[in-house]
Each structure stands twice: as structure tokens, then as C-alpha cells.
Amino acid sequence: MTIGLLLLLTLSGLFSLGNFFHLNQQPNSLIGFKTKRSKASEKSWQFAQNIFFPITFLCLILLFILFKHHLFNEQWYTIFSLLSYLIVGGLTEFLLSQKSFS
């Protein structure tokens, strides 16, 4: 496994833990799921972080386990990892659009 893929898994895990311990409470420009909808209010920001990071981390763990059991090679692992970010990002945006934060 390349260092880039390991770094991707590690950073996602760290951001998920930071979100779990409420270290990322307000919209900021440093870390977080940053879109127009997620930065609209503090509630929408927290909702987006609570959806995006844990689900992404779980997807990457699952992909890592499947990769270690040789169900696909490193190239597919990279593609599936990036796809998991896109899918979970799309899901988060969809859920943000369906929820009212007033």
C-alpha cells in the first residue's frame, strides 16, 4: 500500500475523531465538509460533519479490509476510495438539501 492511501485513511480517521469530540463546531476554512449548504449555519455545519466524516471513515475501513483480503488491487482501492468520498459527499449534500435548519 502506498503512503498516500495510508495517509488518506489516517486523515479521515483523525477528522472523524475530531468531529466525535466536537473539535470542529463552527464553519471554518481549515477542515470540514465545506459547501455552500454546509456553511449556511452552525447547525447545518454540524449536521454535515456528523454525516460526512463517520460514513467516509467506515467506507475506507471497509475498503481497506477488502483490499487486505486481496479482493482487488491497489489501483481499484484508490478508485473505490475516491468514489466513496464522492458518494458520501453527494449523500451529505442531498441530506442537507432535504433538512431545514431554522
Describe the structure.
With 102 residues, the protein is mainly α. Helices cover 69% and strands 0% of the residues. The chain has helices spanning 3-20, 42-68, 74-98. The longest helix has 27 residues, at 42-68. The model has no long low-confidence stretch (mean pLDDT 84).
Main pleated sheet: none
Which term fits the overall shape?
elongated
Number of strands: 0
**SSE order, one letter for each helix or strand:** HHH
The percent of residues in helical segments reads 55-70%
List keywords for this structure.
102 residues, 0% strand
List the topology elements:
Blueprint: H1 3-20, H2 42-68, H3 74-98
Provide a brief overview of the structure:
The protein has helices at 3-20, 42-68, 74-98. By secondary structure, the protein is mainly alpha-helical.
